């Protein structure tokens, strides 16, 4: 499905980004993992290389225009092209609006909305020349419905769905598709840390937090696995999905169906 495709993934030292990289690699893709965390990135790349996969690591803080450009340039220098761009890097900050530091708000917007714009900007010329490209922006169900306390995350994820639609329109006649993935709760370090905070505050085990806080919100009563997200991302990156563009694809165990 993605054999020989060159994929560049931001925020790929761990969690969903790493899992996507691993899945692409297992399916014959050439993988560029990038992340702000050099140590985590080195470990992640070593793990793929030790298993014989064609992978490189490029340190890249997505808030830096120069580093994003360099990341894409190095990808093309090394592998000759860039077929798939996955704008995945993300962070979370939860606070009521009147206590939300403006600099935090701006940082989250920069990482999860401005950075996908910048990366798209730099990847588009290569993809247009190739007459082929797949861009996948990691949004969230937070891009579709509101969640109290998540002003910045929610705004960024809503915004990146808008960016996805515009990029899809501009890429359409050049063989480029652009889609947003909207996962619900996925079993990752980001979500585990949030659950751990609730568990510590309430003095109850993490499993109880899942049963009492998360499962009542999710009709399937489970966290999604990173493998499910990675599989769907690979489908969107494949030739089979060439007619799918400008969409917000939802994988949420039924959360937003309610
Ligand atoms: P994670 O915290 O496990 O991984 C995020 C990665 O992004 C980390 O490796 C981190 O170092 C990197 N990163 C942070 N700031 C960066 C920066 N400035 N430049 C480059 N890299 C940076 O998170 P995750 O759960 O794997 O989430 C990945 C994406 O999926 C995020 O965009 C998140 O919003 C989205 N998402 C996650 C869930 C979930 O349930 N985990 C649900 C919906 C959407």
Automatic annotation (TrEMBL):
Domain of life: Bacteria
Pfam family, one: adh_short
Family under the similarity heading: Belongs to the short-chain dehydrogenases/reductases (SDR) family.
Record-linked NCBIfam families: PHB_DH (TIGR01963), PRK12429.1 (NF009093)
Protein name as it appears in the record: 3-hydroxybutyrate dehydrogenase
Source species of the chain: Rossellomorea oryzaecorticis
